[in-house]
Amino acid sequence: MDVAANLKKIDNNIRQACTRSNRNRDEITIIGVTKYVTIERTEEAINAGIKNLGENRLEGFLEKYEYIQDQAKWHFIGTLQSRKVKEIIDKVDAVHSLDRMSLAKEINKRAVKPVDCFVQVNVSGEESKHGLAPEDVLSFIEELKVYENVRIAGLMTMAPHIDDEARLRKIFRHLASLRDDVVAKDLPHAPCAYLSMGMSNDYQLAVEEGATHIRIGSSLVGQ
Ligand SMILES: *Cc1c(COP(=O)(O)O)cnc(C)c1O
After folding, report:
1. What is the pTM of this model?
2. C-alpha 217 – ligand 1 centre gap (Å)
3. Is 78 in the pocket of ligand 1 (CB under 6 A)?
4. Residue 133: how many CB atoms within 10 A of its CB?
């Protein structure tokens, strides 16, 4: 399928999820995840109207960035090694995988201006998943106030690849309630307005539970 047709279908599904949950379509940003596909396919996504792109590996990101540059906003969504921060930090609009203090320290040191970061939370508790334990999120974010180039834009999670709707909803709701806890602290460095959650198989549920950034790869651009 061409990307434009896929995007139309996804956009329709988002609109329906918004209707079901009394939300406004404008609150939701689609991040097109291009990690599986070529530069040509990435360009096709841009021509179809995708304005935000996500990559999860340094090499893949740099390769695409060289061609696409600022035709899109770039979201780094994968595990980020501290020593690689300097190669991406002035090129990305947001990092969705902030999961440790040493990474925050490196971002702070390398960035020339505040960078929007999402704190990755391992809500499901799966051992294979990166991210902070939910109970550690608040204190972690409070400690980040010393890093003036780290701005906490929101929280991010990856749900397990399951079809159990009730369990997925519970995970998304948990992240939303953690976000509300951070917002209630009213921290200048952590407006934390956003929720980066929902992928190809669960984005409709994520939207119903408050997602503001959904990260869609396979159902948008293919595998
Ligand atoms: C690959 C990836 C996605 C997109 O996954 P799809 O199931 O293909 O939509 C989203 N978020 C992260 C962090 C990823 O690594």
Report:
1. 0.97
2. 6
3. yes
4. 11
User: Separation of 20 CA from ligand 1 center, angstroms?
Assistant: 24
DSSP 130: -
Pair of tokens at residue 199: 């992928």
> What's the gap in Å between 32 CA and the centre of ligand 1?
9
Helix, strand, coil tally for the chain in percent (to 5) = 50, 20, 35
Q: What is the pLDDT of residues 56-93, one digit of tens each?
A: 999 999 999 999 999 999 999 999 999 999 999 999 99
- What is the C-alpha end-to-end distance of the chain, expressed in Å? 12
Q: Which residues pair with 30 in a beta bridge?
A: 214
- Condensed to tens digits (0 to 9), the pLDDT of residues 151-170 reads 999 999 999 999 999 999 99
Cα–Cα nearest to 204, from 5, 7, 1, 11: 11
Give SS3 for 146.
Answer: helix
119 neighbors 98 (Cβ within 8 angstroms) = yes
183 vs 35: CA distance, rounded Å: 32
87-92 contacts, C-beta under 8 A, 24 or more apart? 87/58, 87/62, 88/58, 88/61, 88/62, 89/115, 91/61, 91/65, 92/61
Q: Whose CA is nearest to atom 1 of ligand 1?
A: 217
d(CA 78, CA 110): 18
